[in-house]
Specification:
two-stranded antiparallel sheet, single chain, Hypothetical Cytosolic Protein, Chain: A, about 20% strand, 5 strands, alpha+beta
């Protein structure tokens, strides 16, 4: 982590951190909302601190809905809280 590394704001706690310290949530071009541990999937992204506290807060406050310009469904929420899908890498994109 260097001083020139990009910074992002967590949508849950609103703390500014280095991009590498945060987990990206992405709304894909197909409309799916997924966790993106690689940070490289195409689509609109938002960032949360690792762990579930900030993710739950962002969902409860509808901060992810606003950041991703979408309405999260119950299925989206369940998928996000379940964690990243190891078979959902960027190789298939």
């Amino acid at each position: 982590m260097s001083a020139g590394e990009p910074k992002r704001t967590c949508t849950g706690c609103r703390k500014v951190r280095f991009k590498s310290e945060l987990l990206r949530v992405v709304k894909t071009n197909g409309g799916e909302t997924l966790l993106d541990p690689s940070g490289k999937r195409p689509g609109r992204g938002a960032y949360v601190c690792p762990g579930t506290d900030c993710l739950k807060t962002a969902i409860r406050r509808k901060a992810l809905d606003r950041a991703l310009k979408t309405i999260l469904t119950a299925e989206d929420t369940t998928r996000l809280l379940a964690g990243p899908d190891p078979g959902n890498g960027t190789d298939s994109v």
